[in-house]
Amino acid sequence: MGYKIVQTFRGRVLFNAPLQDVFKLNLWLRTAERVVLVLKRFEAETFDELFDGISQIPWGDYINKKGAFPIVKVRSNKSNLFSLSDIQAISKKAIVSSLSKKYGTIIFEEKYPIYPIHIYIKKNVVTVGIDTTGKEGLHKRGYRKYVSTAPLRETIAAGIIISSNWDFNKSLIDPFCGSGTIPIEASMLAMNIAPGIGRRFACNNWPFFYKYQWNFELEKAKEFIKNIDLSIIGSDISSEMIKIAKLNAKSLNLHGKIRFEIKDFFEYIQIPTESWIVTNLPYGQRLKIRKNKIIRHFKEIFENNKDISLHFLSDSEKVPKIFGRKPKRIIIIYNSGLKVYLYQFW
């Protein structure tokens, strides 16, 4: 989105952006889980230093008198301060101390709105922020009213599609589509539909953000939507899953953009030239047939069809051996805590 990256961590990216861009970030980030407004970064090796650093933040500029400010996330890595419960307690006291100077009281009702606080400490550097996204992360787009037993996170699905470098003019096929996440995310990407367009965020309720700012970004996002022809196919052996996938796509008005069909994966023999296959293979509890058989059939499809781009998630490390060739790229991904591998062949 054109922002300057300051620093990257595992699972986090620190960058500079104008405060008023918070709405735009929550609306448009496809692969991030949440947007945290960083208020301060400082070094702390003792609890006194932690208290002083946090209490010096002008919390009253952000949190109103009746606002709730739960500390919802605390992380510490390679730091002198490692007791998460103590870090949480000291941080809470420091925030109360700062707010008491603003409002002249030490008793706060903590009703509404909610300002979720995050505290990260790494190598004695403390990062303090407010979660602008809210309780439900950005993977909660709002369109998935119905899910399968092992759904793929929307943010991961979007990341896989982006990583595949899918050409919107070519066919994209998901032969294990389940509740339709990959085909729907592909449609949203190609049509430039903002992933957060169907929901609201914690920051919508904060008084220091104006309603007109949200309405402006929302209307602008609607104007950016492209009505283009797409060739996206989602199939599954389960008629119930296809029914669910159609309902989910309907909630985004994607009629005519995706073709969902009941189909056994092993029926795929010939597919359109220069197609992309992007899918999440059955694994763990989803595995009802031998995974080796699935991978061998993928190999047949890849070898018997011209210019195929193949991208699939699997929990198996043995895919290259079974497939008989080295993938162009392997990316390790954690889907709901489960380690899986994105194998990419082209």
Tell me what you see in this structure.
The protein is α/β, with parallel strands linked by helices. The chain folds into two domains: 36-131, VC0802-like (2-Layer Sandwich); 154-194 and 214-345, Rossmann fold. The protein is built from nine helices and 13 strands. It has helices at 22-28, 47-55, 84-103, 154-163, 181-190, 211-223, 239-250, 291-304, 319-323; strands at residues 4-9, 12-16, 36-43, 71-77, 117-122, 125-131, 172-174, 232-236, 258-262, 276-280, 309-314, 329-335, 338-345. The strands form three sheets. A seven-stranded mixed β-sheet has the order 9-8-7-10-11-13-12, with helices on one face. The chain has a four-stranded mixed β-sheet with strand order 3-6-5-4, with helices on one face. A hairpin with a 2-residue loop joins β1 and β2. The radius of gyration is 23 Å and the shape is elongated. It starts with a strand and ends with a strand. The model has no long low-confidence stretch (mean pLDDT 94).
